[in-house]
Amino acid sequence: MKSRVTRVRESCTEHGAQVRRLLWLLAAICVVGSLVVANNSATNVSAQTPSPGRAATVARQSKLPSPEKIIGDYLKALGGKKRVAAIRDATYEWSTAEAAAESGERTRWRTKMPAAERTDVPTSGGELSTAASQRSAWMQMPGGFSQTLTGTDAQTAKLQAALNASRLVDFKKLNVLARTLLLEQLDGEPAYVVEFSTREGGRLRYWFGASSKLLRQVADDARRATVRFDDYRVVKNVLEPHRITQRIEGEEPRTLMLQSVRYNTGLAESIFDPPVSAEVIDVPALLRDVARNQTELDGRVSEYTFTRKQTEREINDRGELKKEKVSVHEVYPVVGGGRVLKLISEGGVPLPPDKATKEGKRVVDELAKAEHEYEERQQKRARVKAERAKKKGNETGVGENGDDDLGISAFLRACEFVSPRRERFHDRDAVVFDFRARPGFRPTTREQSLIVKLAGVVWIDPADKQVMRLEARLVDGFKIGGGLLASVRPGSNFAFEQARMVDGVWLPRFSQISASAKVFLLAGFKLDATREYSDYKRFSTKTVDAVLDAPQKP
């Protein structure tokens, strides 16, 4: 008889799989129910260590104060956590050191809790603007050219916005990880170096004076930039730096002097939204076209086999990589839908010949079984569609305007689309828009209840009517069974990207997921995984035609 511990562990494992499927559904619901072929994934986060060439006084980790202690002292030095936390938004105006006493164009920096910031810098050719929020990060060059950021640039910008807007108050609630790296000399004062990071790949280093307790420097290694903070003075009972020096590799240093600060003026969220295209873009119509187009392409996708590399990482609360598991599978489509996976390597080591032979036999057997059960699966799908149609009171099982209620119609009803715009993405034209819950919308289904907790950004190819990239973040926690079965924590996020093949078919390029959940109120798990897809080639789903050699690049 199984012990209670064993039964609980098995139940948690089973429901953990259900949570993973729910997180996968999170992304699918965002655009169209059957849109995404791939699923779980996460981030390329690696532990960084200080450069051995630095002139640093390195203390043993066990003797370094915790990030919480350092930040607590910092907030106290600024004027106290309560006073700092009371600043919900702020507007700063800066001028260059040479023009500090003159009126004229000034750099403007605005922040808004919990995690939005925007900077506008005057240049000779116009204004350079950058901004980030929990949904997206973007920049607009002088002359009007704008670009939505992706990858490390986007994640670092979002991390910086979260830290600046929150002023480091309760940073862990924003899913920010932190660890104390070392103690080193900075302009004659010992300073603790604290690394902040996110599971999605954002990473910044902060220097806090060991005696002054104040923030002295911030370094962004990805963009090879540093900002130095000096001349702290009191502004409305809170210390603020009045001189900052920006250094970007390959450029001359730039010093700015603080001219004015305004707190809690009620900055609108729209200030941090990306610039809107001058062209009117009908996003709902475009999404409906994507949904209709997907039905045809789904059949073509099932004609391909491919290689999938999955990397799962275990990252602790300090942002350190503790464990990594890499597996590579060949993926074979099943007639009528579905896939069969053939393991070919683990940890970078190919399977031994005997195990590889067993894997090959298992795949052939599963494909044969799937082919044999094809009619039964088709009948089951027909019954499900008929039941949905009956509930909706029509004959098709789809919603108004031909929308599938499990996908596009729920998305259109529950979300509003922010700043539709045209950009270039991977050398193709793209329509890009942010999405967030529609104000005042009350969900009536579980799918809608999930959607209203999401925010993110979508890239769509307007010619092929295909989603090129999707990023979604769970702004609020989502519970299953009232939280008794499982609860997915806020901050869980998903990213998915497709690529266009030479024959016009769009297929997954990669997917990422970083999620934290609790199962049965007992066991929690964190999922940080990346899936990379490659080596696509056409494949017959008929068992008699099955060739299980390694897929080749098209």
Strand segment count:
26
Main sheet record: 13 strands, antiparallel
Strand line-up of the largest beta sheet: 6-5-4-3-2-1-13-12-11-10-9-8-7
What structural class do helix, strand and pairing data support?
alpha+beta
Q: Tell me the radius of gyration.
A: 26 Å
**Number of distinct helices:** 9
Mean pLDDT: 81
- Poorly predicted runs are 1-61, 394-406, 543-548, 550-554
Shape field: globular
Helical coverage, percent range: 10-25%
Q: Could you tell me how far the N terminus lies from the C terminus, measured between alpha carbons in angstroms?
A: 53 Å
Strand content: 35-45%
Overall description:
The chain is of the alpha+beta class and 554 residues long. It has nine helices and 26 strands. It has helices spanning 4-31, 67-78, 81-85, 151-166, 283-301, 353-372, 374-392, 408-414, 446-451; strands at residues 89-96, 107-112, 116-123, 126-132, 137-140, 146-148, 177-186, 189-197, 203-209, 215-220, 225-235, 238-248, 254-263, 304-315, 321-333, 339-346, 349-350, 415-425, 428-437, 454-461, 466-474, 478-480, 486-488, 493-500, 506-519, 523-538. The strands form two sheets. The protein has a 13-stranded antiparallel β-sheet. Strands 14, 15, 16, 17, 18, 19, 20, 21, 22, 23, 24, 25 and 26 form a 13-stranded antiparallel β-sheet that branches. Residues 1-61, 394-406, 543-548 and 550-554 have low confidence and may be disordered.
